[in-house]
Amino acid sequence: MNDFHGRKAIVTGATRGIGRAVSLGLLERGAAVFGLYGSDEQAAQRLAEECREHAPRLTLVRCDVADYQAVQNWYEGFEAEYDTVDILVNNAGIRRDQLTALMDRESWQRVLDVNLTGTFTMSKFAVPLMLKQKYGRIISVTSPASYLGFLGQGNYAAAKAGQIGLTRTLAKEVARKKITVNCVSPGFIDTDFIGDLTEEQRTTYRKLVPMKRFGTAAEVADAILFLASEKASYITGTVLEITGGL
Ligand SMILES: NC(=O)c1ccc[n+]([C@@H]2O[C@H](COP(=O)([O-])OP(=O)(O)OC[C@H]3O[C@@H](n4cnc5c(N)ncnc54)[C@H](OP(=O)(O)O)[C@@H]3O)[C@@H](O)[C@H]2O)c1
Description:
This is Beta-ketoacyl-ACP reductase. Belongs to the short-chain dehydrogenases/reductases (SDR) family. InterPro entries: KR_dom (IPR057326), NAD(P)-bd_dom_sf (IPR036291), SDR (IPR050259), SDR_fam (IPR002347). Pfam families: adh_short_C2 (PF13561). Residues 7-187 form the Ketoreductase domain. It is built from 8 helices and 7 strands. The chain is globular. Strands 3-2-1-4-5-6-7 form a 7-stranded parallel sheet, sandwiched between helices. Helices cover 45% and strands 15% of the residues. It is α/β, with parallel strands linked by helices. The chain starts with 7 loop residues before the first strand and ends with a strand. Helix 4 links the parallel strand 4 (87-90) and strand 5 (136-141). It has a single domain (8-241), classed as Rossmann fold. It has helices spanning 17-28, 41-50, 68-82, 105-131, 145-148, 154-174, 199-208, 217-228, and strands spanning 8-12, 32-37, 58-62, 87-90, 136-141, 179-186, 239-242. The structure holds NADP nicotinamide-adenine-dinucleotide phosphate (NAP). Residues 12-13, 15-19, 36-40, 43, 64-66, 91-94, 114, 141, 143, 186, 188-189, 191-194 line the site of NADP nicotinamide-adenine-dinucleotide phosphate. NADP nicotinamide-adenine-dinucleotide phosphate binds at residues 12-13, 15-19, 36-40, 43, 64-66, 91-94, 114, 141, 143, 186, 188-189, 191-194.
């Protein structure tokens, strides 16, 4: 299922966690993957080595999605070489938790810049390339924090809620051009992203989940791959929860 042969996919935050699982899934199913990452060169190198058999179809680029000019420059080079793109997965994300009253402006701004403005900028430049061929799939990774509101995550919740608003709007703007725009909303997923949780916190959060376990990056990737496939042709403007029932 989900054959991506001949498809070009851009994945942000491609080198670790959920983005890594998405990149592996796309590569295994035949896509060419253009993976953006932030600063962890070793993680990028590890993924490149792991995917050696798919090397001709994997391009990894260090590019801060919050840097508008850097993203624009990268897209210009991409368009000159590849003309169109089929799939964009807006997955890059960070947390900088602090109670709202104590949060400094930098933590507020950086989380908004990476998680929300990054999604805007990456999507803004992908859409014209998708319009050229009247086909595209945009999937952004939001979070139940957007509506549950976990303590200390005001910046993160605001950014993730913003992604949903952007998704619903963009979905309507491009619907007639056979471009679908959706979010997935993972619950607690076992990646570096929640690596700072203490054992006690992990136990508490696991109890909150009806399935009584955290999800895996591969489980989220499977849902993203479905939304990225041709089969998901009549699904747009939605948020797919992958939370174990949270
Ligand atoms: N894990 C969870 O429980 C969970 C739950 C709900 C939603 N999410 C969302 O899922 C997405 C992926 O999370 P994850 O758990 O896979 O996180 P992760 O393991 O920490 O991986 C994050 C990835 O994003 C990249 N990245 C960070 N900042 C970037 C930037 N400014 N520009 C480009 N790339 C950047 C990182 O690159 P470097 O390594 O180079 O920094 C890394 O490849 C995030 O949007 C997160 O909010 C996660």
